[in-house]
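Two records follow; treat each independently.
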Amino acid sequence: MLALIEDLGFDAIDAGGLDDSWLQQPGTPIYTTDHNADHARAALALAQAEHTVEWRARIAAAAASS
C-alpha cells in the first residue's frame, strides 16, 4: 500500500496499526498539521497519549461553556 501512495507522488509514512491511531488524534503534534515526511515522522515520535486526554478535556469544557 505504501508503494501505491509513493507511486501517486506522495511521501508514504507508516504510522503504525490501528492500535497506534491515537498518534494522529487531537492533542498530538501531527494533528491538523502539514509536514513533509521527515517532520511528520518526528511529530509522530513526539506524541504522548496523555496529551490527547488533556485536549479532549479542554474541548469538552469549551463546549460546555458555550
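The next record belongs to a different protein.
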Amino acid sequence: MNLSKVNSIHYTLSGQSDLPVLLMSHALGTNLTLWDHQAQALQGSFRILRYDSRGHGRSPADHGPYTISLLASDALALLDELGVTRAHFCGISMGGLVGQFLAIHHPERITSLVLSNTAARIGTREKWDRRIQEVTEAGIPSVLGEVLEGWFSARFRSMHPPVADTLARALKETSPEGYIGCCHALRDADLSELIERVNAPTLIIAGTEDQATTLEASRFLQQKIRGSELIIFECAHLACAEAPAEFTDQLKKFLTSRTD
C-alpha cells in the first residue's frame, strides 16, 4: 500500500497497478479509514484510492469556507497527479455530493458512480449555520452526541460500540476549522437542478433510519439519474460501517458489471 500526499491531500493507494481504479470519498467528520472494510475486501479486484478530504484526517485544514467545487477539485488533482484518466467513484454523504459534482461537470473522468447516504442537497441552511456556530463557539465536542446519533441506529450503537467509538474518535480528531469549512460547502451546495445531467451508471444506497439524507432524497436521485439503481439497507447514515458486508457485496456486484 502506498501512503502519500498530492497537493497536501493525504491518500492511500492499494491493489495491483493494472486493475481499474476505485476512488472513495468519505463523510463529513470521518476520514479515509471509514472505508477499511471495503478496501480490504475489494483490493483484489480494484486499485483502491482513498483520501482524506480537505480539513480531515491527515489532509490540511486550510482557512475556509470551502465549496463543493473546491472539494471536487482536490479529487481531480489527485487523479491527475497519479495519472488516472478515469475511475469508478464511491462516495458517502459529503463524498457522495463530491461524486455528483464530478459526474456532472467532469463526466469523462467517471466510469461509474456509487452514491451512498447522500442527496442533491444535504440538510438546510439553518442546520448548517447552527452547526457552524456550535463548532465555532465550543468545538467538535459540542456536536459529538448529535452526530453519532445520526450516524448509527440505536440498535447498532448498543450492539457494536467499538465501531461507534472508533468513528467518534475520528470525529474528535477532525480539525474544527476543516469541519467548519466543509459545513460551509454542504450548506451552499445544491445540485438539484443539475443532477439529471449525470450519465454515468449509478448505484444509490440509502438507509431506512437515515435522517440526514432520507429515503425521499435518495428516491429523488433515482428519479433524476437515468437508469440508476436504488438499494435500501436497514441502517442509519453510515451504511458502509453499519452494514459493511452487505454494502461491500452490493458495491462489488455493481462495479464488476461496469468495469471498462
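Discussion point: The first helix runs from residue 36 to 42. How would you locate this feature using only the C-alpha cell line?
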